[in-house]
Fold this sequence. Notes:
By secondary structure, the protein is α/β, with parallel strands linked by helices. The chain has 2 domains: 8-253, NAD(P)-binding Rossmann-like Domain (Rossmann fold); 257-284, no CATH class. It is built from 11 helices and 8 strands. α3 (76-90) packs parallel to α4 (113-141) and α4 packs parallel to α6.
Amino acid sequence: MGLLDGKVAAITGAGGGIGRCHALLFAAEGARVVVNDLGGTRDGAGGDNAMADKVVAEIAAAGGEATPNYDSVVDAAGAKNIIDTAISTYGKLDILVNNAGILRDKTLRKMTDETWQAVIDVHLTGTFFTTRAAAQHMIERNEGGRIINTSSVSGLMGNFGQTNYAAAKAGIYGLTRTAAIELKKYNITVNALAPVALTRMTSDLPMMQAMPSADQMLAPDHVAPGALFLASDLAADITDEVLAVEGNRVFLFRMTKTEACLPASSEGWTAQELAQRWSEIRGS
Length: 284
């Protein structure tokens, strides 16, 4: 018995890296998988069916069941067609994993409008398009569902040279939290992963190159069990969480606030008092 027996999953960006590992593990655990990948380069250029087809062939060779999809999440119709592929092929969709992404790193001063928008479109807008389509189907089926988004440490903590990527991933955090609130009454859980893994997208980043034995410690297959857990009935009561995976280290990201402070005067705060009491306000 697999954890996902009888389930149908759609995984975007599943032609390589983290998404491929998700697809292989989900299939091994009994899911029928829509392997979506546009097949473009790391920066989103071009397209090639071979990436999705290769993962589908791997799943079939291992005795699983999968079908490819080559649509781009950037286009609302294409994103919906990813969901429709699951429905037309397997009759339903139980699980959506939003994993598609590109990198076009530049510092703020060197960031062009096009470089900014391309990354926002794939990560944030693409996640919105597929999530909206999947949620509509899951609500109509009235049998619940699982939606797993992909945020990032860069988005939650910031990272030099990744203004566009960090903004998109921070946006996914907000999207995840709000969707979790809205969809809870339909028994649809919405969670996010914040993975650190060595893939073709991250292999030349300074933070990765600085880590000893990163190829083993941060292999993308470390992330897949987290996705499997959130997609399975083991996490049926878990929603609105961000699970970070860094090799064998896992933890949750949560937004916190300091203790509220009141002004000395009933007339309210002044800039001067804010400055004087800043250490108290920041909780240190």
